[in-house]
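Apologies for my clumsy wording, but could you write out the amino acids of a protein and the tokens describing how it folds?
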Amino acid sequence: MTKNRIKSHPILDIPKKEPAFFYWDKLKLEAIKDEMISSALFANNIKIFGHHHKDGSAQGIFCANGQCAKCTVIANGIPVKACMTPVRENMIVESVKGLPRLPDVDKNPQISNIEHLEIDVLIIGGGPAGLSASLQLEQHEINTILVDDKDELGGKLVLQTHKFFGSQKDSYAGMRGMDIGGMLAQKVEAGSHIKVWKNSTALYVFNDKKVGILKHGVYKIVTPKVILNAAGAREKFLRFKGNSLSGVYGAGAFQTLVNRDLVKPTEKLFIIGGGNVGIIAGYHALQAGIKVVGLAEGLPKCGGYKVHEDKLKRLGVPIYTSHSIVSANGEESVSSVTIAGIDKNFKVIEGTHKTFECDTILIAVGLESVSEFTQEAESAGIKVFAAGDASQIAEASSAMFNGKIAGVKVVQYFKPDAKQIPESWYEKADILKSHPGPVQEILALMDEDGIFPVIHCKQEIPCNPCSTVCPEDLIQMQGDPIKGLPKFDGKCKGCMKCLAICPGLAITLVDYRKDPENPVVFLPYEISNFKVSKNDEITLVDVNGKSLGTYNVIGARATKDSDRTQIVRVKVPKKIAKKVVAFTIQEKEITKELIQKIPHDHIRDDEVVCLCERVTADQIRDLVRKGITDMNQIKAISRAGMGPCGYKTCENLMNQIFWAQKTARKNIVKNVRRPLFIEVPLGKFANGGQ
């Protein structure tokens, strides 16, 4: 259809969909019916959607979640967010050059009454926490409305192709995220007490205890007795030179394009941030056939799970710890990235600069809770609960269990005699959201006969499906039953279930039975874009990515229990058999540093804090140095925070400037949030569709 479509994927099905045609600046292009305009443009290799009215800089994708307006285009004469507006047949889409012109006013606008509804519970967000809470309310026949702004429930689960951590019993460990999301959504939508409003956005919680909701473009007012905020989290941004270039965006936007819309948004990707979000995004990129040039993490070690980090390194992606981004380089779009080593005070170390060619820089430097709904509900006097990332940032496995607890709390509010939450649930919730433990050295088994698994898991994390899936009960968790380190002991039958279920691909199987001097090693593999077939030569690596030599593949196929994971077999000398963990797929040429100098017109001097209004760090810093500590005053002077995102991106960056200038936190006056949380055309409030 178009060159940037993902044609094959190791995990995701590539469905045949009905095409649609639209016009982009008078050029006829092909899209998929009902896909978002932004995805259709990226599929046609169009990544600049317009130019900012203030400085003429390029505009493109940023959040892909409707929370900003960087992707604004003109569709059939109306300014819309490209990431939230579906393509229609023969739609005329135009780039925005400066400020978009207001559409003509209809002399006879449609005016009708707004529908008012009363409900026991309003759940905002249909992700892992919201869905899990809904199931508890359904069991106790509590009437609920669940609103979500997407056309598919599941939240970020929809974007996760990897197998989940946690426990099989409590968070479906070993299942893939998108499969978990689909299963939970199906259960919720089958309920008789849960009304599901998809494509519906909660706009604000008003002081009169009413909530404005835009349902399929029609404004509704809901009066709930209880609100459960499960709206998730938003990504944090970074200040660096060139951060406003097209091609700089977050992991959520990247995963939306790749895993939801099956669009290949980039050829060469560089990642900033070594938490689970950044590391997993790198893995998803490789699954989509995208080259991953490298990953930079500011701390001395990555904050994500070691098995995730190791998995990326083994495939050939270099990880630069104690490094940060210095600049994104390019004229309008990213053409390269410069990073440098940093000291313990996060100051750049001279002489450590490295520049790499890339066309996209993925920012994955943490999340912050979408807590606005909780705060406004409390202010209005509505009973409110929060769950998932809207309560505390953690893994989706934690959000599911946390949502279950929050759902029971809501049940207890309506039915005080309902069952009490067991103390063990809270203990388990703490385990599921716990940070990874220290890396430990694992002693290899002394055995060199029979067949058995070699477990290369060196860090305590909440994950135990290998122990619960073993039909012989031969893998036991040392210490805690969920987050202890797994240990094998006994006589293995070689069923490969532990190898197939491990989310970190950290288990191999070694078979000495036919040839003890040259045993066969079974390796899990999920990057089918880099095909591996019988007789191929591959470079085997150990747990840290160190080469162990080149060997021939003797077989590669998925098994009935492997859930789309290929099992690759190699015959190796016994001295390395227990060390082999995987094989590398990326050529070193992809990840090498640039030698030539960056063109002068590709070097940017500005660090933008407010992307909406193009307010720089220097402008904010000058005002802070003059003694201004009120964000509202800074907004009035500079327009920082006055744009469509409503401070969602720049507030955290402004706080960093305050702290760097030694402003006491107690003296910082926060921005006053006003209705609405998201922009809405005024006409929507006149026509309630009645």
